Amino acid sequence: MARPTIARIVVREILDSRGNPTLEVDCILNNGVMGRASVPSGASVGSFEALELRDKDPRRYLGKGVLRAIENIHNIIAPRLVGIDATDQFQIDKILIELDGTKNKSRLGANAVLGVSLAVCRAAAVCAGLPIYRLLGGAGTRLIPTPFLNIINGGLHAPNNLDVQEYMIVPAGIETFREAIRAAAEIYQTLKKILEEKNLPTTVGDEGGMAPNFPDNEAPLHVIMEAIEKAGYHPGEDVYLAIDVAASTLYENNNYIFTNPQERKVGANELIDLYAEWIDRYPIISIEDGLAEEDWNGWHELTTQLGKRVQLVGDDIFVTNIERLQQGIQQGTANAVLVKPTQIGTVSETIDCVKVAMENGYRAIVSHRSGETDDHFIADLAVAVNCGQIKTGAPCRGERTAKYNRLIRIEEEDRLPYAGLKMLLR
Fold first, then answer.
1. How far apart are CA 326 and CA 344, in angstroms?
2. Cβ-count burial 171-203 (b if 16+ within 10 Å, e if not)
3. Does residue 257 fall inside a structural domain?
4. Is residue 1 part of a domain?
């Protein structure tokens, strides 16, 4: 039987969850099967990420249009891919990488390259009659990932006074994913009631977490603990805490500039001491981007001091890039990598990054972006790579819950076990 080949690629400008334009790509095969994918976009963007191509035309979408990326797909990518076997993801991605020819996808745009890579993958899955997680993961697919749910937003994700970008709950001590999401939703709703009782606003940030002002950066940890207990769960047994500091956004002249409760400069060692105090006081199981993307010495010290106590996740410092991750592994930097397809540009490179991490004893968390769409590809990806962890926002807003709802369905249809603490305590 002849393998399905790519017949047409169609692309359009759509809106993401922040109301900004992004790409939606349709890959139509010669047998009529179609795969559709859309590309998210980040607010807290690492300097070393693959380039998201924007038009910079102030007359359209305040300069954020993606017509140039669309033109690159129509004029450069699509003509090259027509007639290619759609089931050979590695070959498709290799062609995309070669067509761009730059290290950071700056010629065609990582958004253009990724949109096509994702759409081809989905078309191949539909054609094979397989879910994406089985197409990519095969027999290696064994776990439903533990979710990291951002329930209080700060930093660049919210217009409040918090320096720390994300305060997350991790329902890792629950038996199934379905029940873990129920626990998270109940804690989230309980938190909302507590904030309302304190006359604090419960409007939400980009990732669905609530975003009131707080007296300092530790106060959200305390109120989340209260919400966990009031919802009937046990902190440190059923539900743990995690934070994403996004420290690169605070870094200036080898110091970290905090503004809450007052402006002050903090060195890396002082910041590490603060994290150690928080770990002593709260059941924090993971710290993401605790230091800046260029503070390699600080990261090494952070890992030396806290790497055996908590998961230390590199996002901006690694940006899903194998070269940067390998540098971190050699230098003893962090013990986990955040994985975002948009940071590198193709499905194959994303999977390779997870493989390198896990083969070297690092953990991996598949992650969303702050500007998301209702595409739930990353839910399937997290199952496919068997990393056991996913981060995709609060149990609120459709573009966030789309990923959780997809995982509920996967758990039901495939009866895969819930990762829980398995990957976190290795």
1. 15
2. bbbbeebbebbebbbbbbebbbebbeeeebeee
3. yes
4. no
Asked which of 81, 107, 129 is the last residue of a domain, the reply is: 129
Q: Are 44 and 153 in contact (CB under 8 A)?
A: no
How many degrees, rounded to 5, is the angle at CA 252 between CA 250 and CA 254?
110
**Prediction pTM value:** 0.96
**Do residues 100 and 220 share a domain?**
no
Q: Is 242 exposed, middle or buried (0-12, 13-18, 19+ CB in 10 A)?
A: buried
How far is 52 from 30, CA to CA, in rounded Å?
A: 30
Neighbours of 280 (CB within 10 A): 9
Q: Which domain holds residue 116?
A: 6-129
Residue 1 confidence class, pLDDT cut points 50, 70, 90: low
Tell me the β-bridge partners of 28.
8, 34
Cα 60 to the center of its chain, rounded Å: 28
Q: How far apart are CA 204 and CA 420, in angstroms?
A: 27
Closest CA to 22 of 45, 52, 47: 52
User: Around 366, how many Cα atoms within 13 Å sit in the side-chain half-sphere?
Assistant: 27
The catalytic residue positions are: 207, 340
Element housing 228 (H / E): helix 219-230
Which one of 94, 129, 164 terminates a domain?
A: 129
Contact present, 187 and 231 (Cβ < 8 Å) = yes
Amino acid at site 209: G
Same domain, 377 and 249: yes
Burial degree of 61 (CB within 10 A; 0-12, 13-18, 19+):
middle
pLDDT tens, residue by residue, 306-343: 999 999 999 999 999 999 999 999 999 999 999 999 99
What is the count of structural domains for the chain? 2
- Give CA–CA dist 288/355, Å, rounded: 20
Domain-embedded: residue 419: no
Q: What is the pLDDT of residues 13-28, one digit of tens each?
A: 999 999 999 999 999 9
